[in-house]
Amino acid sequence: MHIEEQPKKKRNVTRRQKKNLCEMTTCHIMNPPALNYSSNKPDIRGDDFYMWVNTNWVSDAKIPPYDTDYGVSDEIEDCIMKTSIRAVKECVSGAYKGTGAEAIRTLYESFLHRGKRDIDFLKCTIHDILSIHSVEGIVRHFAKLTRLRFPSVLQIQYSSYKTGMRKVLSILPDFPSLEEGFFSNSTIFNGYKHMLRSYGAEFNIPDLEKVAQIEKSLTHRFIPYLTVDAPICFGNGHTFAKKFRKIPWDVYFEELGIVNWRKTTFEYNYPTFLRKLGVALYEISLDKWKLYLCKLYILSLVEFLPGKYDDIYIKFKYLLGGQKNPMPNMNLFVNFIYNYLPDTFSRIFWDFCGDEARIEGCKELCKDIQRAARIRLKNTSWLQPATRLAAIEKINKMDFLIGKPDTWEVDTFPIFSEIFLENMFLLGDSSTKKIFERVKKNIDVWEQGIYRVNAYYYEPFNQITIPFGIITNPYYKEGKENRAWNYGSLGFTISHEMCHGFDEEGKDYDSYGQKNPWWTRADNKAYNKKTNAIIKLYEKQDIQGKHLNGDNVLSENIADIGGIGIALEALKQDIIRRKVSIDKEKDEYREFFISYAVGWRNKYRTNKLKSNIETDVHSPAYLRVNLVVCQFDEWYSAFDIQKGSKLYIDEEKRIRFF
Question: Are 246 and 392 part of one and the same domain?
Fold first, then answer.
């Protein structure tokens, strides 16, 4: 499926031969689907367009036993994983001698020898937690979790400061826990308690299962203040500490390693959450906070623990989403490298299969999508004229990071240990120091490695990132004959991310990435009318006897409908430029919509689909096809969809955003 962000997802090898040719370029993920009109298959294009395009794939595709769903992006990731495994093996064997190879070799040795020393290392951390005697000790460990890049109640990231786009540190409140929707599911909630009880017995932590009830109580207490629209504020540490004085910030920043924190500028939001957290630190007993901290460390590391420790986790994952087996060891190590050495491994990955031609093709596609977005916005009658101009200005100033960084960052590696978990701690700490250095140097950064099959929009920078991993078949195909296909897949993905700049959150950020609401009352009234129609459309869909929360999936559905409109406009303008004949024009629109449907191919385990209904901000893949294509006149014309088809919507009731 297409992958986005929070966080949501092609070359002619004869043109450029390389010794280390990427598996991705020779692993043909799919061939363009044939249009099925044969008498032995019903013509269901107007009733279920998703299945009309994807029937054979859905029938043949298998979900790996270590996963809970499987889609097109996973097929690409499988090919990328094969290349990554080969790259790691060449680093370990010494065949590849580029930057980072020695570090990967050392880390792999510690990974292979995980065992009692790793368990003892975690037990030492737990013993340290259980020895805490003050709120300051609790806060110090929350800061340590932040520094190690593990889940914590406060996270640190970089953001931009006012129109100069100067980078600053952003303090992001969070409350890592079981998803809120699962607390009312007795099967999952009891399974969660059973898992915690099992870990409590293994690590000698009495009453660890009580964390489930603690989280349930604190979630109801905190989450409402993380979901409301909150202003983004800037201030130095001194001002910050005065506003939220119950939190011992000196302890927090000392553990993070920020010495001059009182004079450092920070971005923050959700001030009510921060006040509630300060109160809760003293109202909730130390013993409860210590149990919660133990749980955060254990679940952050359990995947990398040997034998029975991981087995306990997999049993709960099966209950949660149907996962049957743990991830294969080599895949696990590569994912660890992906997460902890994204800059280093991006450079290695590029050495193995980089292709500048694909990046240049994507850049051209981005320009086409930007032009189309300007046309669509100019003709969006429900926006006030001044708002339309401001929206076009936001599109014009939108920044694109495409394929790979312009320059590779050089990592400074710590002195590694023989204990793998300790190396995770060292790399997490190193990653946090890198964040501080990037803020100090005020440089643009890539949040994820170039091997990710993803794309994402970041409001504070008004920036879209498109990693190299997604610029591949079936999202992107080289060759002028594939232009319609590319607009329907990668072109849609780009315009989808662009539309996040105008969704429930994005519309409050201006062209400089500052939270500065710029829509008029009339704009918001018209916007709400359209979003209410989208909410009702998705809420009435029956999914295994359940219904989506329309508000929960709204932003993604806005981006889907708005994104397809912009991508269609890009194709329309391209057809005009190329003077395509009327007969061939219909074929191009057909290829566009087929490409779009192929990009959402996905299979779910039953438990996964059920849990997604409760917690995911994305609608199921088949709805993201069927409920979107039927909003556009071009789909009806391209496939001769007639009234009486299940997906048919009267023209005046079709939802258009831009």
Answer: no
